[in-house]
Write a structure and sequence with these properties.
Blueprint: E1 15-29, E2 34-35, E3 39-40, E4 44-62, E5 68-72, E6 75-76, H1 78-90, E7 101-109, H2 120-139, H3 145-159, E8 171-174, E9 188-190, E10 203-207, H4 218-224, H5 231-251, H6 254-273, H7 284-300, E11 305-308, E12 314-318, H8 323-334, E13 343-347, E14 353-354
Parallel strand pairs: 5-7
Antiparallel strand pairs: 1-4, 1-14, 2-3, 4-7, 4-8, 5-6, 8-9, 10-12, 10-13, 11-12
Helix pairs in contact: 2-3, 5-6
The structure holds (3R)-3-hydroxy-3-methyl-5-(phosphonooxy)pentanoic acid (PMV).
């Protein structure tokens, strides 16, 4: 376990307000399966998104009853408050000062509700970032930017695994393997400086096949990996994919990277289908879109690839330079397969940002 400072002893008149935004992220090599205290069974890499993000403000005050109220889009939401309270209790050993504070949290997502876009990565990265800012305001312990981000990534991981990657701009790796000595199971690490500049303006259009709640949650899915007979082979494959995708991303080799991305997306869903009990989250229109994307690629030679997270929606990934060709294809052939023609245009972005003094 990383030995962060564990400040305690909040001055009794302490109070303040912090604010930040944190984006969602899309994994290219997928984290699927975990153990211990939210540790990944294999390494993963993601692109940090931008348009899909959470804005969070935390008002804090010492001397009360250490209560918590949570407002989502201005409405008091006790179910979320319970989840956050459980999380804060679970990290008391790392952030002991939190139990001395009353917290009022206001949070909102930029992406519409029920788009099927996981909000836990952005929400938990924003919360973790806010907690670090409070720690720094009270104790001055996190002046070093790298240390601040490491602690924010660590705390985000304990809330929702993939959230740890949303702290960093452009791209982040989470999970140790022998292909990258700096990689860690405990925190994500920034990859911006290790990948080709083409990724700074990379696009991700999220095509909403269904915005309904999925039938099996990601945490249940991770759990089912324990008895999945393919799990050991899968974890090996992920490590091989990580080493290869890092080479491809450093070189800006979008074809080599794209082959891995699509294999990863389909492997993730194959693992769901081979779990006991088995389940399928793709919809018929997910497969129809995959066919059309591959046919478009064959016809145009453009580096346009798809990925999926744990749901039926397609993430269409392409460089900014391909946008003029991709847009008419999308409008013509993909949007008609979306629920109510819905999609969300996103692109690679800057990671969690402090907006306290903005
Ligand atoms: O962080 P969780 O527990 O929501 O799991 C995320 C799992 C995937 O989105 C499918 C893959 C990933 O690496 O983000």
């Amino acid at each position: 376990m990383i030995d962060f400072p564990r400040p305690d002893g909040v001055p009794h008149d302490a109070h303040g307000s912090v604010a930040c935004t944190a984006p969602s992220n899309i994994a290219l090599v997928k984290y699927w399966g975990k153990h211990g205290r939210q540790l990944p069974s294999n390494p993963s890499i993601s692109l940090t998104l931008s348009a899909a993000h959470t804005r969070t403000r935390i008002d804090y005050r010492a001397g009360g009853t250490a209560g918590l109220t949570f407002f989502f889009h201005g409405e008091r939401t006790d179910a979320f408050a319970d989840r956050i309270e459980r999380y804060l209790r679970s990290i008391h050993d790392i952030t002991p000062f939190v139990r001395e504070l009353d917290l009022e949290i206001h949070s909102e997502n930029t992406f519409p509700h029920s788009t099927g876009i996981a909000s836990s990565a952005s929400a938990m990265a924003a919360l973790a970032h806010g907690l670090c800012r409070i720690e720094h305001d009270l104790f001055g312990t996190l002046a070093d930017r790298d240390l601040f981000r490491r602690k924010a990534s660590y705390l985000a991981r304990l809330a929702s695994g993939s959230a740890c990657r949303s702290i960093y701009p452009t791209a982040a790796v989470w999970g140790a393997w022998n292909g990258l000595s700096a990689a860690s199971d405990e925190v994500a690490i920034p990859m911006e400086d290790r990948i080709h500049p083409v990724f700074r303006s990379y696009r991700d259009t999220i095509l909403i096949v269904s915005g309904s709640e999925k039938s099996v949650s990601s945490s249940a899915g991770h759990g089912l990996m324990t008895d999945n007979p393919y799990a050991p082979v899968r974890f090996d494959q992920a490590r091989t994919h990580m080493t290869r995708i890092l080479d491809a991303m450093a070189a800006g080799d979008l074809e080599a990277m794209g082959r891995i991305i699509e294999a990863e997306a389909l492997t993730l869903h194959a693992l769901m289908m081979t779990s006991t009990p088995s389940y399928v989250l793709m919809h018929p229109n997910t497969l129809a879109m995959i066919d059309r994307i591959r046919a478009f690629r064959r016809a145009t030679d453009l580096p346009v690839y798809f990925t999926l997270d744990a749901g039926p929606n397609i993430h269409l990934l392409y460089p900014a330079s391909a946008e003029p060709d991709v847009r008419p294809f999308m409008e013509d052939q993909l949007l008609p397969l979306c629920e109510d023609g819905r999609s969300l245009d996103d692109r690679v972005g800057h990671g969690a940002t402090d907006t306290t003094d903005a």
